[in-house]
Amino acid sequence: MSPARPARDRLVAAAADLFYRQGIHxxxxxxxxxxxxxxxxxxxxxxxxxxxxxAAYLRDALERSRxxxxxxxxxxxxxxxLRSFFDRLAAGATRDDFAGCPFANAAAELGxxxxxxxxLVDFDRALADFFARAIDDAPDSPAVRRLVVCYVGALHGAKxxxxxxxxxxxxxxxxxxxxRA
Amino acid sequence: MSPARPARDRLVAAAADLFYRQGIHxxxxxxxxxxxxxxxxxxxxxxxxxxxxxAAYLRDALERSRxxxxxxxxxxxxxxxLRSFFDRLAAGATRDDFAGCPFANAAAELGxxxxxxxxLVDFDRALADFFARAIDDAPDSPAVRRLVVCYVGALHGAKxxxxxxxxxxxxxxxxxxxxRA
DNA sequence: ATAGTACTAGACAGAACGGTCTAGACACTG
DNA sequence: CAGTGTCTAGACCGTTCTGTCTAGTACTAT
Lengths: 181, 181
Known about the structure:
The structure is a homodimer. By secondary structure, chain A is an all-alpha fold. The first copy, chain A, is built from nine helices and no strands.
């Protein structure tokens, strides 16, 4: 049925790059297909609408996040899991195309009624679940919610201040709040 | 010269409401002037462009934030200043039109090259300055940067999870990180 | 009374948008 | 060879957007 569709993959990759860096509403269909090197008809053969492409971009980003979570969970103990996670965030924040958390950015644009916003809820759950597994606690526990605060503050702070040190500050905060709990 | 311009004020108020709740790109000029009860020409007599209206909206929000900061700084000691601040955030997060931090939302939409984004930098500085005064520390100190992380995490977390408890979690984190430092 | 100012109502233009459609190239499979 | 599915190139449509323009109204100061 769907053996391998390079056009679709190139579309998602181009959408990821442009939607992430420029914003979703600020990026037009024509720019996406030009970046992907793909005809407009190929877009609408693979996706019913621009919103579907947005959802596909977010689902792809969610999948990458899940893999990141899984890698961090291979560490033996809670502090090294948290350290591994925030180290990876810090590394990402030094890239020149860093623009914060893609899900936070999308949440600011989409609004709660948008169909693609269900992926944002999925990410939120996946993040809480990751932190819960990382520190062996319940996903709704205050300790996990504090770690989510650290994550959000880290990425957004590093974005608006153009300063990856903020991620290190948030990591300190995360480690401290875990060791205290 | 400019004794009192109700049309301009109504425009900024309408823009604040709509841009904040729906997003900037998702809100058209026609919707703003309809909400303001104002003719389109009045908009362009007071603002050169939509971007100017966006900037005016953000400057107005920045001014309100500065007043909030000043009120919190009347508290006698650092913990009560921080508690006062996060209590006000928590109160705001329970409102049904709560949509997170207006500057964070605008940052996700505008991109760094937008002229209005200088107001975002101003807010960032004002926030760091407030925390620095609140805990009697330098605006670039790690303690202040950790508090900024708490602020961002509080508002964004409360937004995407629709749960004002997140603000309380962030407040705990903020108080703890200050008392430890 | 008259001039100036701030406003309203809405038509209008130009561009950009999302999305559809036709025509045809290429590769693979029977 | 014929047929099928995926692709490209780009014209095209209707809508929506920002921004301009005309015309006329209400108020105020001199």
